[in-house]
Amino acid sequence: MKKVLHWLDENLESTLCMFLLSVFTVILFIQVVMRYVFNNSLSWSEELARYLFIWLVFIGISYGAKQMKHLKIDVFLNVFPKKFRPYVIIFADVVVLVFAVIVIYSAYSIVTQYMKMGSSSPALRIPTWFVQSSSIVGYVLTMIRQIQTIIYRIKELKAGDLEAFEAKDEEVPL
Prior knowledge:
Structural class: mainly alpha
Distance between the termini: 19 Å
Number of helices: 6
Order of helices and strands: HHHHHH
Radius of gyration: 20 Å
Number of strands: 0
Shape: elongated
């Protein structure tokens, strides 16, 4: 069980993103072939590609949080003295965490409304709440990754490793 949890912690977002992007690409390729080679189109392919892309974006947000690669403005960070920068970065991580919680709360109310309405997509007849729940899933994963990031940064700050707060291109262990 511990190995499974470790694998999920290391690979969940990247595996999901690769899967979603692969299916997205195959569906769009099939649609292009159908349209330009066979002069016919699939009624469901564009809708499915759109929904896959939506899920890809929200899972990708979590992957960016896991890699500690979310947007930040280095110029703004350089305004602060070097010894205060780690605290500013941790504060920014907390702000992202709070934002994730707000999005989860707001998205939950929207998803429950869609569930009550019982509406479905036009071509695939997928319940619309399923598509809307992508934001909840993505931001719950983001929230988990932000908590891991904050814990990692606090440990590094306590250890006196200020280099952990510098911009790096390699993967950061969580």
